[in-house]
């Protein structure tokens, strides 16, 4: 990093030339903002700089004013500056903001991305603009065009906007090599990165510069942040409102409170964590008459642009949005930000609430609306960390091998042919690949050659272009996995409403079905598979299905979950010493700066837990509890660490018992559905006796039986050119075993495992937890039966908005359908008796008429292969798994009779989920059918992941 002399502070604009200063006066810029005061001087002096500041604080002008100053009055032949943004929407926004400066200073500004017309592309190639706004993927394509390569030879400045967004994905790793490819063409150029608040700005600097000299300029945001956490209480009016909105009273209280906050402020952004929640919540708010629009990535571009304009013009009081609005799309002045449910990550909260109040001296204010106790405590922790600026780590993708494959093809496209050592040098100049082993690089080249992507001349150590290179490269410009999307078109107007993921269309969308999009209800009239179009007509129906879209749940980081554990420790100790919930909550207000009533609502379950005399669950104490066929490991380590620990424990228990073990995790629990006889002590043995050095290999072995690896292998194989386009439900469906057998030992397999460990399973952190358990640094307690904390998972509050609590007529329909469904009854004792029967004709306790056994499995009517598997003597792995499922089903029927048969007859409800449904305590029989319906819907949303 460098510390050169440059003009900073209130006089920062004096570092710019007179033409720029005149333009600033015309534009109404009276004094520089905080980032402008600190960064304009160093950027004007030609330094490589990373500017870390909240969205809306003037970062764009911080970077572009010095660049415009450098370009003003110069005779420019090619493209002198590139402004790279992660979203096309930001392209559009940047164009509008930069055009004025270009027109005033005589600098030609243009935009290029995937939707740019052929005419405009040709015009840019023949007469390049001085400054081009583009995306990382379009830059990849530009580097291979003959005319554009000549234009790019003149690049002197590259600005990367929202670089933190790129850094945590393979897009950032791809761009890092892309910048080195540009350097091969243009020579050294200035690099400026614009970032939101991040854990390690120097890591962003290395990604941007390839570990050359750079300067980080960071603006503190925590001190200018007002965050309130609320847990709305249900009123009598909310009870009535719930009936009108076809939802739960608690959800109605949330809808009512959002409506109030929108009314109290002039311009409010309301962030939610998923597109599904945006649609479900939006439909209820529109029913209530709230002046609010909906904005997320699966809405049509025209729809998004229109609601942005309406909000900016003041025609809408609020905008309900997902992460797409975290970035710097200009929607005008924002007074207040609502975060619906815990933001789960400090970085997200800072980015979202940072969108409010950007006039100089303003404080960014926001409200987190919470639901269940986990959500409250987590929100308290995230808000406190945000005020302190304590952002969690977000590691970049180091050594991503499919990115290497992608960029080798790019280098061959650049030069026609390239010496392998030179290609290796270019790739490893990029920071994410500075430790890439030469043997790994060679294995990637050989894989590409075997897939006919490039030609490898081994004797001369040269990589050459071949017929398949062009097709592969342009098919893989993006490192975002390709999954089909269907356009949703209004049959009346012909206009596009939005898009739907292929998995939702395949699993749910058929003529007559109703779903929510844009906060409105639509009935499907036609599904055109060939053109990938769903035609719809608008209807009035408050209970449509919420579509599923691609996108993982936002994971809670380990540092946040640990802080929740520490909060439990402090509050739990006070409660155990005789303090009441109110006084403990009041004591905690000084620490968390939130009203005592909200804190008290977060302590309800903890108080019940302590009142029962149960051991605490804290940042350094685990509680393992068992009962009703489940073992719950209460552990405050976050999503990814708990998922890794869960896979480890389930794999080893399954190995010990010879039976499969079900697994569900959240940031504070690992729930295992275990064979009969398995108790908490068995789990403790695994945690205390497993060699930490073996954790990685055990989890990798367990993945070979998991659909996660199959799906990831297919995606990565596509990006290596080993498969045609991967479609989750299309013609490219492979047997898991076949795909694994074909790819194990290749860089494709190595990359699939690396990516799963990077994105889903914190294997290193799980290893550290085992080491701490075995050293005594983390204690492990056990109890028999389930505790209030163990049964209080996140799922208790996340689906409130979805109309899962169906009305009586829907429940009656489900009952009738299940009673009329057929099942195969198969005796596992004698294996001679098998009958196909309607559920309503099955006796309360099925018994084999041949041998009198009650060990009867209830199987789907098409499950003849399961019967064959049970009878087989020399079983394959798949047959062994089918046999285990049959025995699990028989065990349920033996214990619960016809109730188990009904649950097992449901769509996609296997023995694991059937056990969960049956074991749930409930007073109303209708709730049993509601739970079945909920599981069926969940299966429909996720079916593409299952064989």
TrEMBL record:
PROSITE patterns: HELICASE_ATP_BIND_1, HELICASE_CTER. GO terms for molecular function: ATP binding; ATP hydrolysis activity; catalytic activity, acting on DNA; DNA binding; helicase activity. Pfam families: DEAD, DEAD_assoc, Helicase_C, WHD_Lhr. InterPro entries: ATP-dep_Helicase, DEAD/DEAH_box_helicase_dom, Helicase_ATP-bd, Helicase_C-like, Lhr-like, Lhr-like_DEAD/DEAH_assoc, Lhr_WH_dom, P-loop_NTPase. The keyword Hydrolase applies. One of its GO terms (biological process) is DNA repair. Residues 40-216 form the Helicase ATP-binding domain. Residues 782-801 are annotated as: Disordered. Keywords: ATP-binding, DNA damage, DNA repair, DNA-binding, Helicase, Hydrolase, Isomerase, Nucleotide-binding. It comes from the Archaea. The keyword Cytoplasm does not apply. Residues 257-402 form the Helicase C-terminal domain. Belongs to the Lhr helicase family. Lhr-Core subfamily. This is ATP dependent helicase, Lhr family.
